[in-house]
Design brief:
- This protein is of the alpha+beta class.
- The protein has one domain: Nuclear Transport Factor 2, Chain: A (Roll), CATH 3.10.450.50.
- Helix content is 30%, strand content 36%.
- It contains two helices and three strands, in the order E-E-E-H-H.
- It is extended.
- The mean pLDDT is 94.
């Protein structure tokens, strides 16, 4: 396991999920996990909060905002319709 952070300006696409450049600054904290087998990397996983990244880049609305409340209301409606 290795903890890390990166910071910079969002100037290129983040793919996946396909976010277009916003020109905004961001800082991301994360952890990498390596599983080794016979001296080689057999599995690699990275863990970080993509929702926090999306908020920093203005892709997701700030917590507690009216826009966030509207998105939550739409999600509730969608869930209700899927249960039918």
């Amino acid at each position: 396991m290795w903890a890390w952070y990166m910071e910079g300006t969002h100037r290129g696409a983040i793919d996946p999920p396909g976010f277009a450049p916003t020109g905004r600054m961001m800082r991301v904290d994360g952890v990498d996990q390596w599983t080794m087998r016979d001296g080689r990397i057999a599995r690699y996983r990275a863990f970080y909060d993509m929702n926090d990244v999306a908020r920093q880049l203005g892709i997701v609305p700030p917590p507690g905002s009216r826009t966030e409340a509207g998105m939550v209301a739409l999600q509730h409606l969608q869930a209700r319709l899927r249960r039918r």
